[in-house]
Amino acid sequence: MSSVPYLKFAGPVLDEATIAGVADVLRSGWITSGPWVREFESALSTFCGGRPVKAMTSATAAIEVALQLAGIGPGDEVITSAQSFFTVLNMIVKVGATPVFVDCDLVTRNIDLGEVEAAITARTKAIMPTHWPGTLVDMDALLALARRRGIRVIEDAALVMGSQWQGRNIGAIGDLVTFSFHPNKNMTTIEGGALVVNDASEAKRVDPLRFHGITYLPDRTRDVAFPGGKFNLPDVNARIGVAQLAQLPAFLAQRRALVDRYFERFMTDPPCVLPPRPSDGDGQSWNMFSVLLPLGRLTVTRKELRDALDAQGIGTGVSYEALHLCTLGRRYGYKEGDFPVTERIARETLTLPLHAGMVAADVDRVCAAVTAIVQQARA
Ligand SMILES: Cc1ncc(COP(=O)(O)O)c(C=O)c1O
User: Which of these is catalytic: 54, 94, 185, 230?
Assistant: First the structure.
């Protein structure tokens, strides 16, 4: 076992001022959704160029509500990348729609828009792409395609809070956009998420979807016309969100510096395939640093390599398994070979530690450990 502290592959940074702020909320007598949620939503809206933003208990909740807001249900199809997190598949299925997978690009890992075009049918209601850190989906091409074919776009922006498309924050443009504030993301509310909508009337329609389906009547009683969810963010979490959003630029700068260090350390004889380095580096946020392992040329499996890193106190992740090959995905008729790029990434990907609490020496330790294992395992 290693004597150095275990390096998690992701995690939050929570300062004492934030912790004190949470204590104040806990003592205030109002701990569920209230003034701090309004403050958080207002700050998020400013971040998103003035568009209305609704805070939720998770990005998963925000995606479910976005699908319902777009009127998507049984008989409808939603096109999404097979290389994403399970929630994308789960929520499409949960609202009763059919997931239609397409492959992704090997370099950017983003949904292949050419394949999206080919997958559109009369039943297609939405495209749901996941933005990859460092390499965003081409927003111009995506929105032009959606407009041309008359379908909605639900951007899964869980990994790219703080990334910019042509100088504007992701969330400030587009149709429906969802963010995650899970502790592994660029900023956190413990659990939490947000949905960006187009206008006040859509924002109003989110309220009952987020809170029991309740609407408020003039006589101060309530009505329910459909079974809404229960996804309102408590004030305790929103208080953390307000503090984290203010610190987001600093968190992103630290993540960028760590990524620069990864590129620098891996520059000569990289032991794995590195992600592309964006030309507009300052406009990109790095939620993860995911590499591809040259497994065909190694005598170890990915599990063995991860176990060896674990034994040296280094945590890693898999981002992501192939959605079409999980048990739920296969129920829609998908099988091995359907999406070769997604499947290759699912086999070879390894997410290395990256979070704003790390320092350059942590990156050096990871790079040295990965390089040593790979060099030893070269077939
Ligand atoms: C790409 C992506 N989308 C959505 C989510 C869901 O986020 P949440 O945990 O806030 O529901 C995750 C979570 O890890 C994710 O990685």
Answer: 185
